[in-house]
Amino acid sequence: MSYIYFDNSASTPVAPEVRDEMLKYLTGEGLFANPSSVHMFGVEASEAVEQARTSVAKYFGCSPKEVLFTASGSESDTLAILGMVRGLQHKGKHIITSVIEHPAVLEVFRALEEEGFDVTFLPVNPGGQVSLEGFCSAIRKDTIFASIMYVNNETGVIQPIEGIVEACHENGVIFHTDAVQAAGKLPLNVKTLGVDLLTLSGHKIYAPKGVSALYVKESLMETLVPVIRGGGHEFGKRSGTVAVHQVSALAKACDLLAERHSADNKHIALLRDTFEQKLTNALDDIVINGNQEDRVSSVSSVTFKHIDSEALLVLTGEVCSSPGSACAGDDGLSHVLEAMGVDPIHIRASLRFSFGRYNTMAEVERAVGMIVPAVERLRMFSPLGKGG
After folding, report:
1. Residue 320 catalytic?
2. Is the pLDDT of residue 388 over 70?
3. Does the pLDDT value for residue 325 go beyond 60?
4. Mode of pairing for the β-strands spanning 143-147 and 174-178
5. How many other CB atoms are found less than 10 A from the CB of residue 359?
6. Is residue 92 within 8 Å of residue 143, measured between CB atoms?
7. Catalytic residue among 62, 136, 254, 327
8. How many CB atoms lie within 10 A of CB 154?
9. Fewest C-beta in 10 Å: which of 59, 133, 238, 342?
């Protein structure tokens, strides 16, 4: 069976160039050494880490002193949110996020709420966007911190973070964005964006799982309270031996993003647009979820009315897609689509298809050729009927 992988928002394949870079530090003589060791192999490993930090900093448009390496996007989000909020709590107890954030953000805010912080969870409009006016209205005198994702992982909808950043800085509020789904699709120059903290994850940008980068504005580094304590690695902000092979792989992936940004996006947008056009031409009663004007090129959240998406996944088993986020809750319902006001019965009829660098137009043709008859078959026998 030849599978079609349309789940790149969950995880991307490792680029061959990235794999080769990583292997150097797994198989090369002495390059496996601990970068904290003082012998020559340790020095070489340390130099590799700092070279990787410089490459990631170049991608961010910041100083290497503003880049921290962690083991995952979730860890970077946790460090950014917990670390800054705890470091700022003497100034106030009010913090802001949105209802459509990734669980890596939402769960940290809920934990802070249990600690006694006052959290505002902002709603979104039917297109899946936070209202800039609503965000500004939520800011109070005791607001210290806000975190709004740059791009939603389920719909690809872009959030208005430029205006949000401006509002934050006018009111002395520190701002973090989870940019995991924006990397490679939108520019991530942190100085242009004006963000104070930003999260990036390796396995969303053709690097391996288990590595992430967190940008922290230099003037805020002292305020950031460590979450993981120990040997004082990463400028004393994230203890734990740095995985040289992982950070080197991440750096190579960032270099490739910079080189291939335009070509990748043009290719991926054509795949996504062709996929959606062919589906809408062939099938009635389907909806593309989210604001169509403000979204990245890679994601298509599709509701196939009158069917159950899990049944469609079974019938089109060669097409790897997802009912929503790979980190969805136990009930299986997308909290993002719920927040957008989508009827629960239609949420259960929705799938997320996400396209990447290595997908082809031939795969789009094959996938549509399997999905259309499968939907028609399910509708013919579905208890949901045309009224569903």
Report:
1. no
2. no
3. no
4. parallel
5. 22
6. yes
7. 327
8. 28
9. 133
